[in-house]
């Protein structure tokens, strides 16, 4: 498969249209649907490391050159760092992004009362940046605020913004990810600061509300990374709404590939993340690159769009499994 490289916004980083997010393979529990079937009972550290390396190998072989982790993704940074060393991937051969702000506190337990804790303070940034650099070293290309919101105040925190400016001056691009029904307001506020090189937001066939703001961010020179393109499994084969499933059958691809193709078709998108937990899922996701998105598909699936408030309410109720 040929995945052409493209610039990540105004940075000098090269990425591919499809990237790999490591949220699903760095820790035993996550909110994606169907993990029991995907991963089975063995979610020990070594088993999850092996699965993550299998997915990373398959992604690399397919031409994927953007990999996205976070401090809160359990051992995802550790797994990625070990894979980069073992496979002798030189710094700069792939663009590596990670995030700070959440801390994994699940203790590698499925039944943990809490799996992650959020703190968007400058103190947390400084500590987690040190932890990330200790693992990823010169491979770190992009460091992002994890799930920034207007309400959190992080975009008004001069200490945080100063640390991010210093990091940027040191040669690491800086970005933010967004969450919740007010993503658009967060994106516009971030663009106005002039600090950020990228924004990573949820956009999918169910939740499209961030689209206009992401287009404005793209026009301002930011790289746009789309996460949750299959809505944590709600747009994959197990749970796909019938209009999506029918359209996928007609085109000979899975619903997940068609859902990711919808995001790839947006003119303001730079990278769409696959959150595959298995090599089979990754292969299915990568078929999105060969889908021709047209006006007929756009019209056929327009009715799947939901209001953001109920969408995010449903997402917040998904169980860690």
TrEMBL record:
Organism field: Planotetraspora thailandica
CDD domains reported for this sequence: AKR_unchar
PANTHER family: D-THREO-ALDOSE 1-DEHYDROGENASE, NADP-DEPENDENT OXIDOREDUCTASE DOMAIN-CONTAINING PROTEIN
Protein name as annotated: Oxidoreductase
Pfam families (UniProt xref): Aldo_ket_red (PF00248)
Domain (NADP-dependent oxidoreductase) ranges: 52-295
């Amino acid at each position: 498969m040929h995945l052409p490289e493209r610039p990540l916004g105004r940075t000098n980083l090269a990425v591919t249209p499809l990237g790999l997010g490591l949220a699903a393979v760095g820790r035993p529990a996550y909110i994606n649907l169907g993990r029991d079937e995907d991963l089975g009972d063995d979610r020990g550290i070594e088993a999850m490391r092996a699965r993550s390396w299998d997915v990373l190998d398959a992604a690399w072989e397919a031409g994927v050159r953007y990999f996205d982790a976070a401090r809160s993704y359990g051992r995802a940074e550790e797994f990625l760092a070990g894979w980069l060393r073992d496979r002798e991937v030189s710094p700069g051969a792939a663009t590596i992004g990670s995030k700070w702000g959440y801390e994994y506190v699940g203790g590698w337990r499925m039944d943990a009362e809490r799996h992650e804790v959020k703190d968007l303070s400058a103190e947390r940034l400084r500590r987690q940046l040190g932890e990330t650099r200790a693992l990823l070293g010169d491979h770190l290309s992009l460091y992002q605020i994890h799930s920034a919101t207007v309400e959190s105040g992080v975009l008004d925190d001069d200490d945080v913004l100063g640390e991010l400016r210093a990091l940027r001056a040191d040669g690491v691009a800086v970005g933010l990810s967004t969450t919740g029904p007010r993503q658009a307001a967060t994106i516009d506020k971030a663009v106005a600061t002039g600090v950020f090189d990228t924004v990573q937001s949820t956009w999918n066939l169910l939740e499209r509300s961030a689209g206009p703001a992401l287009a404005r961010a793209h026009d301002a020179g930011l790289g746009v990374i789309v996460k949750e393109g299959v809505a944590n499994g709600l747009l994959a084969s197990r749970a796909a709404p019938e209009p999506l499933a029918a359209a996928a059958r007609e085109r000979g691809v899975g619903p997940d590939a068609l859902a990711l193709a919808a995001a790839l078709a947006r003119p303001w998108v730079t990278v769409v993340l696959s959150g595959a937990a298995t090599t089979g899922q990754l292969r299915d996701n990568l078929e999105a690159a060969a889908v021709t998105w047209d006006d007929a598909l756009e019209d056929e699936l327009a009715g799947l769009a939901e209001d953001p408030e109920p969408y995010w309410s449903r997402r917040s109720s998904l169980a860690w499994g």
